[in-house]
Protein backbone atom coordinates (compact mmCIF):
# COMPACT_ATOMS: atom_id res chain seq x y z
CA UNK A 1 0.00 0.00 0.00
CA UNK A 2 1.46 3.35 -1.05
CA UNK A 3 1.85 6.02 1.59
CA UNK A 4 -0.22 9.14 1.07
CA UNK A 5 1.47 12.46 0.50
CA UNK A 6 0.39 15.19 2.92
CA UNK A 7 -2.05 17.52 1.19
CA UNK A 8 -0.66 20.71 -0.29
CA UNK A 9 -2.09 23.62 1.62
CA UNK A 10 -2.12 27.30 0.76
CA UNK A 11 -1.88 28.02 4.50
CA UNK A 12 1.50 26.21 4.62
CA UNK A 13 2.82 28.83 2.19
CA UNK A 14 0.94 31.94 3.35
CA UNK A 15 1.36 31.73 7.12
CA UNK A 16 5.17 31.38 7.09
CA UNK A 17 5.27 34.30 4.63
CA UNK A 18 3.21 36.44 7.03
CA UNK A 19 5.61 35.55 9.85
CA UNK A 20 8.60 36.50 7.68
CA UNK A 21 7.03 39.90 7.01
CA UNK A 22 6.31 40.41 10.72
CA UNK A 23 9.95 39.71 11.57
CA UNK A 24 11.04 42.35 9.05
CA UNK A 25 8.76 45.18 10.22
CA UNK A 26 7.91 45.84 13.88
CA UNK A 27 5.29 48.40 12.79
CA UNK A 28 3.14 45.47 11.63
CA UNK A 29 3.03 43.87 15.08
CA UNK A 30 -0.62 43.87 16.20
CA UNK A 31 -1.74 45.11 19.61
CA UNK A 32 -3.59 41.86 20.26
CA UNK A 33 -2.80 39.32 22.97
CA UNK A 34 -3.79 35.71 22.48
CA UNK A 35 -2.82 32.29 21.27
CA UNK A 36 -4.77 31.32 18.17
CA UNK A 37 -4.67 27.58 17.49
CA UNK A 38 -5.75 27.26 13.87
CA UNK A 39 -6.63 23.79 12.61
CA UNK A 40 -6.62 23.84 8.82
CA UNK A 41 -8.78 21.21 7.17
CA UNK A 42 -8.84 19.76 3.68
CA UNK A 43 -11.89 17.78 2.59
CA UNK A 44 -13.24 18.02 6.15
CA UNK A 45 -10.17 16.31 7.66
CA UNK A 46 -7.55 18.04 9.82
CA UNK A 47 -4.52 18.62 7.59
CA UNK A 48 -2.37 21.05 9.59
CA UNK A 49 -2.33 22.97 12.85
CA UNK A 50 -0.81 26.45 13.13
CA UNK A 51 -0.17 28.47 16.26
CA UNK A 52 -0.38 32.26 16.04
CA UNK A 53 1.03 33.68 19.25
CA UNK A 54 0.34 37.40 19.61
CA UNK A 55 1.50 39.18 22.76
CA UNK A 56 0.95 42.84 22.01
CA UNK A 57 2.83 45.36 19.93
CA UNK A 58 6.03 45.10 22.01
CA UNK A 59 6.63 41.35 21.61
CA UNK A 60 7.47 39.77 18.25
CA UNK A 61 4.55 37.62 17.06
CA UNK A 62 5.15 33.94 16.44
CA UNK A 63 3.49 31.93 13.69
CA UNK A 64 4.52 28.29 13.88
CA UNK A 65 3.37 24.75 13.20
CA UNK A 66 5.11 23.65 16.41
CA UNK A 67 2.95 23.51 19.53
CA UNK A 68 6.08 23.31 21.68
CA UNK A 69 7.53 26.51 20.15
CA UNK A 70 4.23 28.30 20.79
CA UNK A 71 4.01 27.13 24.42
CA UNK A 72 7.65 28.06 25.10
CA UNK A 73 7.08 31.50 23.55
CA UNK A 74 4.18 32.41 25.85
CA UNK A 75 5.10 35.22 28.26
CA UNK A 76 2.73 35.19 31.26
CA UNK A 77 -0.96 34.35 31.16
CA UNK A 78 -2.59 34.48 27.74
CA UNK A 79 -6.06 33.72 26.40
CA UNK A 80 -6.40 30.89 23.90
CA UNK A 81 -8.89 30.40 21.12
CA UNK A 82 -9.20 27.43 18.78
CA UNK A 83 -10.22 28.05 15.20
CA UNK A 84 -11.03 25.39 12.61
CA UNK A 85 -11.17 26.42 8.97
CA UNK A 86 -10.83 24.81 5.55
CA UNK A 87 -7.66 25.74 3.66
CA UNK A 88 -9.59 27.47 0.85
CA UNK A 89 -11.75 29.38 3.35
CA UNK A 90 -8.64 30.54 5.24
CA UNK A 91 -7.28 31.90 1.97
CA UNK A 92 -10.61 33.64 1.35
CA UNK A 93 -10.52 35.10 4.88
CA UNK A 94 -6.93 36.37 4.65
CA UNK A 95 -7.45 37.91 1.22
CA UNK A 96 -10.70 39.61 2.24
CA UNK A 97 -13.08 37.49 0.20
CA UNK A 98 -14.98 36.62 3.37
CA UNK A 99 -15.34 38.42 6.70
CA UNK A 100 -14.80 36.57 9.95
CA UNK A 101 -18.39 37.17 11.07
CA UNK A 102 -19.80 35.86 7.79
CA UNK A 103 -17.49 32.83 7.92
CA UNK A 104 -18.55 32.09 11.50
CA UNK A 105 -22.26 32.56 10.83
CA UNK A 106 -22.17 30.27 7.78
CA UNK A 107 -20.13 27.60 9.57
CA UNK A 108 -17.02 28.05 7.43
CA UNK A 109 -15.00 28.90 10.53
CA UNK A 110 -15.60 27.07 13.81
CA UNK A 111 -14.45 28.72 17.04
CA UNK A 112 -13.91 27.24 20.51
CA UNK A 113 -13.06 29.66 23.26
CA UNK A 114 -13.09 33.43 23.33
CA UNK A 115 -15.23 34.55 20.37
CA UNK A 116 -14.31 38.23 20.84
CA UNK A 117 -10.62 37.32 20.70
CA UNK A 118 -11.26 35.25 17.57
CA UNK A 119 -12.82 38.30 15.91
CA UNK A 120 -9.60 40.24 16.51
CA UNK A 121 -7.81 37.88 14.13
CA UNK A 122 -9.46 39.70 11.22
CA UNK A 123 -8.03 43.00 12.54
CA UNK A 124 -4.61 41.37 12.69
CA UNK A 125 -4.71 40.40 9.01
CA UNK A 126 -5.97 43.88 8.07
CA UNK A 127 -3.17 45.62 10.00
CA UNK A 128 -0.62 43.33 8.37
CA UNK A 129 -1.99 44.36 5.01
CA UNK A 130 -2.59 40.63 4.83
CA UNK A 131 -5.04 40.96 2.00
CA UNK A 132 -2.74 42.87 -0.33
CA UNK A 133 0.37 41.00 0.78
CA UNK A 134 -1.29 37.59 0.42
CA UNK A 135 -2.57 38.44 -3.06
CA UNK A 136 0.89 39.71 -4.10
CA UNK A 137 2.54 36.61 -2.64
CA UNK A 138 0.15 34.31 -4.50
CA UNK A 139 0.71 36.15 -7.78
CA UNK A 140 4.48 35.84 -7.35
CA UNK A 141 4.52 32.23 -6.16
CA UNK A 142 3.71 29.61 -8.78
CA UNK A 143 3.03 26.86 -6.23
CA UNK A 144 0.53 29.03 -4.33
CA UNK A 145 -1.07 30.17 -7.58
CA UNK A 146 -1.55 26.57 -8.71
CA UNK A 147 -3.19 25.67 -5.39
CA UNK A 148 -5.49 28.70 -5.36
CA UNK A 149 -6.67 27.86 -8.85
CA UNK A 150 -7.79 24.49 -7.48
CA UNK A 151 -9.56 26.00 -4.47
CA UNK A 152 -13.08 27.31 -4.74
CA UNK A 153 -12.64 31.06 -4.50
Account of the 3D structure:
The protein has one domain (11-147): SCP2 sterol-binding domain (Nonspecific Lipid-transfer Protein, Chain A), CATH 3.30.1050. It has a 5-stranded mixed β-sheet, with helices on both faces. Helix 6 packs across helix 7. It is α+β, with helices and mostly antiparallel strands and 153 residues long. It has 7 helices and 5 strands; from the N terminus they run αβββαβααβααα. This is SCP2 domain-containing protein. Residues 18-126 form the SCP2 domain. It comes from Mucor velutinosus. InterPro entries: SCP2_sterol-bd_dom, SCP2_sterol-bd_dom_sf.
Q: Helix and strand layout, with pairings?
A:
Layout: H1 11-24, E1 33-42, E2 45-55, E3 62-64, H2 67-73, E4 80-86, H3 87-94, H4 100-105, E5 109-113, H5 115-127, H6 130-140, H7 142-150
Parallel strand pairs: 1-4
Antiparallel strand pairs: 1-2, 2-3, 4-5
Protein name: SCP2 domain-containing protein
Pfam families: SCP2 (PF02036)
GO cellular component, one term: cytosol
Summed up:
By secondary structure, the chain is an alpha+beta fold.
Amino acid sequence: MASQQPPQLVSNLLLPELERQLKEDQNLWPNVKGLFIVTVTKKKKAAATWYLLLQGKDVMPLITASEEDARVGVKGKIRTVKVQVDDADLLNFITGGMTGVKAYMTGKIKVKGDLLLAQRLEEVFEKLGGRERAIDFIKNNEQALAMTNKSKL
